[in-house]
Amino acid sequence: MALPSLRVRAHGAVEIMDSPFCDPAMLTRTYQDFRVVNALVSGWWGIYRRSIRPDLSTTTEMTLLDVGSGGGDVSRALARWAMRDGLRLAVTGIDPDARAHVFATSQPKIAGLSFRRALSSDLVAEGARFDFVVSNHVLHHLSVAELKGLLVDSEDLVRRRVLHADLERSNHAYLGFAAATTPFFRHSYIRPDGLTSIRRSYTATELRAVVPAGWTVSRGLPSRLVLGWTPPDA
Ligand SMILES: C[S@@+](CC[C@H](N)C(=O)[O-])C[C@H]1O[C@@H](n2cnc3c(N)ncnc32)[C@H](O)[C@@H]1O
């Protein structure tokens, strides 16, 4: 397989699942497969343990907003982990895409978990606030202007901590994902869209250069970035 140049962000590259005309059955399997891919590579168990769980309580309910929740598996995992730990966490997943909303709401119900078809800016307009604002694999989807808009929305929406997790672009990430997925995911868009996502994603240096002061970028494995912000008065 030819390795495309990953020197600069391929911000014009389009993921198949973003097309309104993509195959509905392939798209449903893509949402299903995200559960496996996110569990293997997205690192949310570690983020939950280090940066969310320590603030949760058995008595006082905390709230968490998952922006761009897609098929909803990260929202579901966070709600399930908190419940298993006996901690009170209400999770809201939002996504403007009707197809994602239909898939997310068709899955088995979990206490304290809900999904809405909405943009982060809609919640800002409502004056909503959450203890945590998180996202997974959303940053690379956005133009730089949209990214800055999401960060302004996140600052408006959060009380305690923002955590936006994404891929980090590198030859290593591209070749590793290509090799690991070669025999799998033939009936979904996971492999082609995953490779496009890596081409669209930021390096840590690039992300640090575009985010406002006060935001931090930390690197993790495998090829992960977490963009974080804590309100000064938190
Ligand atoms: C690649 S998907 C990630 C889905 C899911 N978080 C996951 O990890 O499987 C990115 C999603 O972000 C949504 N999105 C983009 N901008 C958004 C915004 N400002 N507010 C809410 N959702 C947004 C898109 O509709 C898309 O479904």
Structure overview:
- With 234 residues, this protein is an alpha/beta fold.
- It has a single domain (16-229), classed as Rossmann fold (3-Layer(aba) Sandwich), CATH 3.40.50.150.
- The chain is built from nine helices and seven strands; from the N terminus they run ααβαβαβαβαβαααββ.
- It has helices at 24-41, 44-52, 73-84, 98-106, 120-126, 144-157, 171-181, 190-200, 204-210; strands at residues 62-67, 89-94, 113-116, 130-136, 158-167, 216-220, 224-229.
- It has a seven-stranded mixed β-sheet with strand order 3-2-1-4-5-7-6, sandwiched between helices.
- It is globular.
- The N and C termini lie far apart (48 Å).
- It binds S-adenosylmethionine (SAM).
Keywords:
234 residues, alpha/beta, Rossmann fold, 7 strands, 19% strand, binds S-adenosylmethionine, transferase, Methyltransferase domain-containing protein
User: For the CA atoms, what is the radius of gyration?
Assistant: 17 Å
Strands of the largest sheet, in order across it? 3-2-1-4-5-7-6
- Beta-strand fraction estimate: 15-25%
Topology-level CATH name: Rossmann fold
Number of strands: 7
Protein name: Methyltransferase domain-containing protein
Keywords: Methyltransferase, S-adenosyl-L-methionine, Transferase
GO biological process, one term: methylation
GO molecular function: methyltransferase activity
